[in-house]
Amino acid sequence: MISKIKFLLPCTLYILLGNFSFAQEKLKLESNIKQVVLYQNKAQITNYLTNNLDAGVTDVVVTGLPLNIENQSIQASGKGDITILGVKLLPNYTKPLRKSAEINYLEDTLDKINIQVEHLESKAEILEKEAAMMLSNQVVSGKDKALTADEFEDYVDFFRDRLLDIKHSQSKVSRDLAKKREIQSNFQQQLNSIVSKLSRPSSEITVTVQAKNKTTFGLELQYLVPNAGWEPIYDLRSKGTNAPMQLIYKANVYQNTGIDWDNIKLKLSTGSPSNAAYKQELYPWYLNIYFPTPKRKSNHGGAAYRSAPSYDDKKEEGVVYEAEAAPMVMAKSLSESVTVTEQQFATEFEIPATYSVNADNKPVLVEVQNYQLPAEYKHFSTPKLDNNVYLSALLTGWESFNLIPGNAQVFFDGTYVGETYLNLSSTNDTLNVALGKDRKIIAKRETLKEFTSKSFLGNTKKNEYAYEISLKNTKKDSANIVLEDQIPVSQNADIVVEILENGGASYDPATGKLVWNLHLASGEEKKVNFRFTVKYPKNKNISGL
Prior knowledge:
Elements: E1 5-7, H1 10-18, E2 25-30, E3 33-38, E4 43-53, E5 56-65, E6 75-79, E7 82-92, H2 101-136, H3 149-198, E8 202-211, E9 215-225, E10 228-238, E11 245-255, E12 261-269, H4 311-314, E13 319-321, E14 339-342, E15 347-357, E16 364-373, E17 375-382, E18 386-395, E19 406-412, E20 415-422, E21 431-437, E22 441-447, E23 453-457, E24 460-473, E25 479-486, E26 496-501, E27 506-508, E28 513-520, E29 525-537
Helix pairs in contact: 2-3
């Protein structure tokens, strides 16, 4: 039978446990991570353990757990004829180091390398002393008589040859010693890395279990930990302006919980377990006269206040669970695609493959989904500011794909374009993705001098402006172009702006923006003209002209 969680007063729990306090046994089991549900800033870890259980009350101690487990998030359920009486979380700073086969191999290899290094160091020392001895005991004459020329030549030859042998030996020993020390350092670093991970502080969860008879049981533990999460990253790929946009939804998965995750099943959730479960309340909005008060120094270096006690400060530690038989989840084949589950407040992506994620904050890339999005390609140009023409893809239908904001790598026509940010908080149905400059469409803006003039009429000065914009499409394909320019907007009654010609553009009086929606066939060139006048008192200086 499987139990549901009940929160009882501590005294009730003590009474339950007190009846068995003198007969309790301990059973230690090592953590066995079955699945991780990753949120964007936390992880829910599921451990599953099985073992035999004697009749009576047993403290099942699950070791090798992360140190920073959120106590209030712990859930326990069991499979078998058992009753779970209580759950307790404790840190473990004294867990002995378990030597694995890899550690034993590294230690044995290091011992051999250390002996070889010591031998080479001794050999180098002896050669150094031999060379010093020869240099300090040079003899150029005999003890009783002077050396003959032949004897002197023999001695010099011997001295030279022996000293040369010593130098060669020293050089070889030095090279061998450098290589051995490099190998020694690499093995030592590898050993230190493994030992440091195994010697990190950890947690233990003790689950007090009662069994009427000797039985086999299964225990499932779930808990939340910080220092883990995932962030979305996208690839946007298009083969050309006549093709849809391929959106590859990926995730950078990371964790630094202190415990490596080896070959675990992953679920990625767009939800957050930290969000409040209750709606926010409106309280009276009071107004009053403000009277400044002197600032008071805080012992904590911040605002001088004490927050109200949190729920965690006041909550009871006694948590009682009744045994409950949870159905087992069968492992999925790697050939199956990612399973997407729509929940009320979030979406979960169940990844079919298993992954290993080390506790070093280094991201592991996981592919989540692959979509085809309908795309309309448009060019945009504002030649008043920039003669370049920019291509954008207008994507629709993205709302149904459970996307969240994130960075995207953009590829167009087989070329990397750059990085953009998908801001999905907009309520627009169309997602605008910039694809960069299109140098095969040429834009040019010129002043029409024959229509540009300055004149006076009484106390009024009149300026006339005229511009021509030309666009030429040198591409093999046609192109839709949104062309923008502007005329000034008056903010004073003495300044009068009049449009003489808008060239067929749509005009917004509030902003002065002119917009043309043009279609250019391959090799086609189009020109648009617009003119306007500005009248103002001749004794006034106008800003903005």
